[in-house]
Structure formats: structure tokens, C-alpha cells
């Protein structure tokens, strides 16, 4: 599977997603590793097996084994953190002063440049809807030198990958052609 196979499976009503997927796959705003890792982490966060398989197949040759593991780790750790910190943010009170007491060692030693891991964590946090995490990771990548255009590109990738996953799930549930 590949990006092209995902585009072929999208129903006609999702033409904009096909176009966005194609243009983002060729976008040069991010480094090849940043772009590939953002796609992989976003696919894992979007929770669609076909999308994940296609995107990993498309980008695993672009990433070193360490970078592929780091992209997977960003999706995994943010899957936990986004829930916890979204709760803290929504409820407020004493929870914000309490230690999380959740292991997050990978954040300190992700196996790739910290900037790339933070960018992937930002993309996953956008998918998972954690405002506190989005703000924190956006600040980190901006402070580390990424431009607003680069941050926007990562979030555009996350938004598109998530929409592709949701559309394919919906199309399969409705029996739309090509989504099986």
C-alpha cells in the first residue's frame, strides 16, 4: 500500500482529501524526516489500520529505524498524555499542581533530534484534541526555530491523515465503492 493507494480508495466526495494528501506528500516545507515522521505519527493517532499500513509503507524507507521508532513512540506517549493533560486542563483545580506520575522517559530520549519528536508530538496532540499539549509542543518547536509555516504544514498533515482515516472508516460502514 501507499499514499496513491489511499487516494484511489477515497470516495469521489472526498476529492479535496485526495488533493491535500498528494500535495502534502510532496511538500518541501519540512525536512524529509520531519514530513515522514509527521505522516507516520499522525497515521497511528488516526487509528485506521489501512491508513497506518499505507503510510508506514510509503515512508519507512525515508526514516532510519530509530526515527521510525521515535514517530511510533510520539503517537504512543501522546495517546496517553493527551488524555491526561486534557483532563487536567478541563478540570483545573489541584490537578495542575499534582505530579502526573506517568512514565514519559521517551520524551527525554526519543532517539531523534528533540525538535522532530516535538513536532510529531504536536501533530498527534492536534489529532487528539489536547489544547494544553498543542500549546506546549507548538511553543517548543517555535522556540527551537521552526517557522509558523512549518508548524502549519505538520498540522495540515495531521488534519488530512485524520480526515482520510475517518472518511475510509465511514465509507466502509456505508458500503461506498472503493473503501473496502
Automatic annotation (TrEMBL):
The active site is at 130 (proton donor), 133 (cysteine sulfenic acid (-soh) intermediate). Disulfide bonds join 130-133. It catalyses: N(6)-[(R)-dihydrolipoyl]-L-lysyl-[lipoyl-carrier protein] + a hydroperoxide = N(6)-[(R)-lipoyl]-L-lysyl-[lipoyl-carrier protein] + an alcohol + H2O. Its EC number is 1.11.1.28. Pfam families: CMD (PF02627). It is an enzyme of class 1 (oxidoreductase). InterPro entries: AhpD, AhpD-like, AhpD_core, CMD-like. Keywords: Antioxidant, Disulfide bond, Oxidoreductase, Peroxidase, Redox-active center. Gene3D superfamilies: AhpD-like. Residues 94-174 form the Carboxymuconolactone decarboxylase-like domain. PANTHER family: ALKYL HYDROPEROXIDE REDUCTASE AHPD (PTHR33930:SF7). Antioxidant protein with alkyl hydroperoxidase activity. Required for the reduction of the AhpC active site cysteine residues and for the regeneration of the AhpC enzyme activity. Belongs to the AhpD family. This is Alkyl hydroperoxide reductase AhpD. It comes from Nguyenibacter vanlangensis. The gene is ahpD.
